[in-house]
Amino acid sequence: MLKKISLLAPFAALLFCWFSSVSFGQNQFDKVFLAKGAPQQGTITDMKPTEVTLDMAGVARAFPVNEIKTISYGEEPSELTNARNAVIQKNYNVAIEELKKLATQTVERDLMKQDIEYFRAFCLAKQAMTEGGDKAAAELAMKTFVGKAPGSYHFFDAAEVLGDLASSSGKPTDAVKYYGAIASKAPWGDYQMRANNAVGRSLVAQKDFAGALQKFDAVLTTDLSTAEAAQQKLFASLGKAVCLAETNKPDEGIKLIEDIISKNDAQDTQLFARAYNALGNCYLKANRPKDALQAFLHTDILFYADADAHAEALYRLSKLWTEVNKADRAVAARNTLRDRYSGSVWASME
Hints:
single chain, alpha+beta, 4 domains, five-stranded antiparallel β-sheet
């Protein structure tokens, strides 16, 4: 028995070394993680806002950015990996702490440097728009990133973040500019639809309901039939319903929203949060404050995972509870808004 073990030992050692070298070799590759299908690995040879080219054992393959979830780089620092994963999980404080550790390290590869700058700006923006922070500093950080890396695959995401920052700062005109750039420059229908919806919401904030209706109708008449397109059409219908209410047709808006609620799955928390907020706003225009209160309560109690929608619901509830002589409930809604979403535009309206 002892003899067998001694004979196997060298073989086991060789096997360990082989697996170790394979693992080490895999770490040298860049990896493109796709929305569908297995990750692809190789060496990134070109990057544009619209596509990323990967050399895969001598064969070049281009991946459209709208099909990419994220990218990792060969031999990247563990802190960058940790930060990226934290961003995906929406743990922005953790991500920022990981990125801070990189300040004392030398990162040679430009693509890694770009990711570090992007994720830092992204996290600053997300924090500023929710729990509070310096929105001007976040905007500057994101603009600096775009200026240094105009060819990054993060380009359109960066434009969307800048639009979101402008919206949360009460600057809908600036938001239209950023979202409009995506709608006009992104070559993919789903990106264009999402951007047009965002433009529409910004126009609603400016009380340009005719202009907003045009954007929402542009989304609704798009031929694209993907799951993302279907989702964006539902969001466009909600925006259209609000515009109908704001132009003296609240009953039409209410009917449209009730139809969406009845035909869709409540597991889609973002859709239902926006739907009940839109319904509440339509009820307000129909002079039905008690019904509006119930609609916003749906968002507050059941669909609070969408931060912006929850912030709006809390703002509306703080007013509606006062109207029905529930001062304690109004104060509670106001305090929750300030505590959780101090960076929201709704908190600034208090």
